[in-house]
Amino acid sequence: MGKVACKNCDGNFEVEVKDLKFYEKIKVPPPTHCPTCRRQRRIALRNERHLYNRKCDLCEKDVIAVFPQKTDYTVYCNECWWKDSWNVMDYGRDYDFDRSFFEQFSEFEKSIPHVALFQEGDNKNCKYINYGLGNKSCYLALCAYCEDVYFSHGGIKSKSCMDCTKIMTCELCYECVDCNNCYNLLFSRNCNNCHDSYFLEDCIGSSNCFCSGGLRNKKFVFKNEQLSEEKYLNKIKDIKLTNQSIKDWNEALQRISLKVPKKFMNGMSNENVEGDYIDNCRNLYDCYDCLDNVENASYSDFCGINSYDFYDCLYFGIGSQLCYEINGASSYNNCKFIYYGSNLQDSEYCQCCYNCNHIFGCFGLNHKSYCILNKPYSKEEYEALLPRIIKHMKSTGEYGEFFPISISSMPYNETIAQEYYPMRKEEGIAKGYTWSEPEKKQHREGARVCKECDSDFMTISQEEAFYKKFNLPVPEICPECRHKNRFNQRNPRKLFDRKCMKCELPLKTSYAPERPEIIYCEKCYLESI
What we know:
Layout: E1 2-5, E2 12-15, H1 17-26, H2 35-43, E3 52-55, E4 62-65, E5 75-76, H3 78-81, H4 101-110, E6 114-115, E7 119-120, E8 132-133, E9 139-144, E10 147-156, E11 159-162, E12 165-168, E13 174-180, E14 183-192, E15 195-201, E16 210-213, E17 221-222, E18 225-226, H5 229-237, H6 243-257, E19 262-263, E20 267-268, E21 271-298, E22 301-304, E23 307-317, E24 321-360, E25 369-372, E26 375-376, H7 379-395, H8 417-420, H9 425-430, E27 448-449, E28 456-457, H10 461-469, H11 479-487, E29 496-499, E30 506-509, E31 519-520, H12 522-528
Parallel strand pairs: 5-6, 7-8, 9-10, 10-11, 10-12, 12-13, 13-14, 14-15, 15-16, 19-31, 20-21, 21-22, 21-23, 22-23, 23-24, 24-25
Antiparallel strand pairs: 1-2, 3-4, 17-18, 25-26, 27-28, 29-30
């Protein structure tokens, strides 16, 4: 098919033969938006970090929610949303062939109560956790199977960690980014199996090291210099961490890391992959943050665990297959254009549905089959009506497109789309996106004032105990600015054509050509370390 003009950004993008084969396999037309605009459209539904105090519209108890008190949506606390005291099927309606599908769906889903927070599994003492799964005593963290994790994003099976981004099976870690199987590690990034260390980058199997990069199975290294145990301990015994010294040590680590070659992508044990932050996967193209047996996928992010044959998916996996344009899913089979849920099969254009099969344009269903806009049909009726709806959507140019940003239930500037694809209010309003007005900054008595954004912030008792335990200063910037700073430490979701700076092998890498790092292919990188 070759080059195609994106209908959203007017740029050109390539639709390759393998892409066309996939679209034909799942019976959708080729995309009209480029991969970047498709990513932006998907994540414009996800408000992960902006939470509000409000009342449940059913039980009237105080609740934390992704919706403010004043909103167009009815909002139930999680307990009420899952109760049998109301029936989501009561909101079912007929499909109107005189109106566009997205217009109908927007009106339809606004009529149905929405859940206050996205939580699954048994979350204990996690009142302020959104998009959480099976956590205990966590606070303002997007995580799964974690305990005592605070102000973090992307934590899995970790304990007693704070201010971290994308950590797995870590404990007692602070200000760490992309670290796995680490213990007592602080101010570090891209590390595996490290412990009792500070300010490390791209280190594996190292312990008792300080301000170093590119280490492998080392001990007692200070600023990339090998020392005896005695000299190392003497070097670090008088180091006092203040907000200024932390900044200075981070800058020193940056200078050191620029002298150490970096592999063109972050990841290991892969076969035929292009992207970044990928482990134990094969046959991936333009994918990021994927792990553990993901195969045959393109344009997808944060996917994992025995999933294959899918395109354009986000937060997706756990035994899923043959899917397209999905945002938030586990155990899906042959599903398309869906936001959030689990255990779905042969379903399209749904949101927040669970344990269903053969549903189309539905919201909030659980254990249902053969439904359209939450109205039940017999198998024969469903199979006769669905092709007519798809034909109608094709005539309006809707079929094959994910939910438009303009009908998102979340203001654009409160979604993670604003993190990855920042936009000014005037631009967003001109595109028809909803926008929230930030509250006027009012410095509360006893609150700290962020030195970067001038908003006030409070510390919690668990946080203060953590600082005391590690002899750390209370940060001068708020949790949101700390999150943004960690976010900016990660590479972008974009591939550039470069060459290995040693053997000149052509590479596709998320390190832009103008960046100062020394970038090697995998072979040269392994030889260098």
